[in-house]
Amino acid sequence: MAFANENPTERALSFARLPDSLDGWRVLAIGGGDPGRGYLTGIGADEYVALDQPTPDPELETGGFDLVICGSSLETDVHPLSLFAWMRRAIKPEGALVAGSRVLSDPTKSQYARYVPAAAMGGHSRWLPGRLAFRWMVEVSGFDVDGWLAGVGQKGESEEQAYLQARPADRAPVLDLDRQPLHR
Q1: How far is CA 78 from CA 4, 114, 117, 183, in A?
Q2: What's the pTM value of the predicted model, to 2 decimals?
Q3: Which class is 8-102+131-179 in CATH?
Q4: Domain locations in the chain?
Q5: What is the mean pLDDT of each run of 10 residues along the chain (184 residues)?
Q6: Chain centre to alpha carbon of residue 104
């Protein structure tokens, strides 16, 4: 499937293991506009909510979303674990998460994460985790990773874009979700 103005998050959705029909599904997209809106509503998604960043709206944190998409918010969020904890509260127990981040390309640094200061990025600070560190962030926030979405990201010299698909875990999240504020 092709998307009109394909961006990496839209491409990740094309590789995600989702049902052929999303009849009745509620979709929440965090950061980066509304990737895949036309495609997802075209195959039945009833509601599509796009936010630039998480909000403390209790209506959104009731576990009512079938699919949560997060493409670019993670890398610019000062507290990415709080972002994942918020998404965990927003998703249904049987829901799906498609999350992406720029990651360190060097496999020997997979377990590490760097914080790149704004001065080095032309005005925007961001996190740059290794693949394993990215996976761990998702898992400690209460998700089980189903796998990496191959064929999605762009590879650069020191970093690449990577996406994974996960689902809410049956176990209690390692993080105390009630103690993870959105804004500090």
Answers
A1: 31, 12, 11, 9
A2: 0.84
A3: alpha beta
A4: 8-102+131-179
A5: 58 86 92 79 89 84 91 68 87 94 89 77 73 92 90 66 91 60 50
A6: 17
